[in-house]
Amino acid sequence: MQPPAGEDALARAALLTAAVTSPHAAASRPPSRSGYAVSTRGLVKSYPGPDGTLTHAVRGLDLDVSYGESFAFLGPNGAGKSTTIALLCALARPTAGRATVAGADVLTEPHQVRLRVGMLFQHSALDPDLTVEQNLYVHARLYGLRRGYARRRAAEVVEMVDLADRRRFPVRTLSGGMRRRLEIARGMLHAPSVLFLDEPTTGLDPHSRAQVWERLRALRDRHGSTLFVTTHYLEEAENCDRLAIIDHGRLVAQGTPHALKAAIGDDRVVLRTGDDTAALRVVRRVVPLRGGVTGDAAGVCLRVPDGSAWIPRLCAELEGHGIAVHAASATPPTLDDVFFHHTGRSMTTPSSGPPVAGAGEGTPAAESEGGR
């Protein structure tokens, strides 16, 4: 089930309303870049359920994101990612806790928050009948950029995302990857301090997804942009400097991808032999049962620290017992292993916990997660 189509539209309207109320919106910036681009403490968002109970979409979130950082918010569908984005963009009001974004408080300075952030929505917000440059110009004017500067800025960002040769083409003629790149350009028009990207590559093929990430990395490196990305794609989180894993509205782990995987410790070693049943018995005698040794269709599988160092020893032991080794591999921990370690299930396994959908009426974009 898709989330209600009106949620993204209402969220877009809220951001643009904040912009057009100030003719100098684009000039509004935090006085300094000290502190964090995004900081939350005890952030909570709950909704009343139909039976009088509360649905907790975000539960006590503590988070710090530095300026210029690319940060991934990783979690399965329904984890609370889009609700968090809505809170951080001042599109929904927290039930409890506090948050600052680009130096502005989401509760006491929501207008300033909306002026200082850019947003790439999960669903397209482009007008398919307007050209590339017309879409950009209209958005720039809505954000208060003067006519001349709006045209210059539109020309700059369209170059940034490699769409200058398509600037006079109607958006409906663009591929999915080109449209996503155009939406990134539009989000950068008013030079926001923080660019939020909600599932930026959903529905794109691998080539288009790689192109989008190439542009995002270029934006970060060239302009020092802070990128806050929600995703359920593990490979996308690998592209970021740091990531946080959210599950059932709770933050369960955060750190660099390398550090989180290193904390798991053990590599996965797989051996394919001429007699896997006999090999299983030999390996079980050799390897400490720290991670266990199992046999399945892939062969003999085990988890050990520094798996590549174990392979020569295991091969020698098996050959000493007359068992031929056809193939051996050692794979370091993945982010899916990290997620499993902290939640007890794979990212690809449907959650059996309480849903976090149900944003209710009047909460724009508060929870487009539930139907994702």
UniProtKB/TrEMBL annotation:
Protein name from the UniProt record: Daunorubicin resistance ABC transporter ATPase subunit
Keyword Lyase: no
Molecular-function GO terms, alphabetical: ATP binding; ATP hydrolysis activity
TM annotation in the entry: none
Keywords: ATP-binding, Nucleotide-binding
Disordered as annotated region, ranges: 343-372
Record domain ABC transporter: where: 38-273
Alphabetized InterPro entries for the sequence: AAA+_ATPase, ABC_transporter-like_ATP-bd, ABC_transporter-like_CS, P-loop_NTPase
Keyword Cell cycle: no
Pfam entry (one): ABC_tran
Gene3D superfamilies: P-loop containing nucleotide triphosphate hydrolases
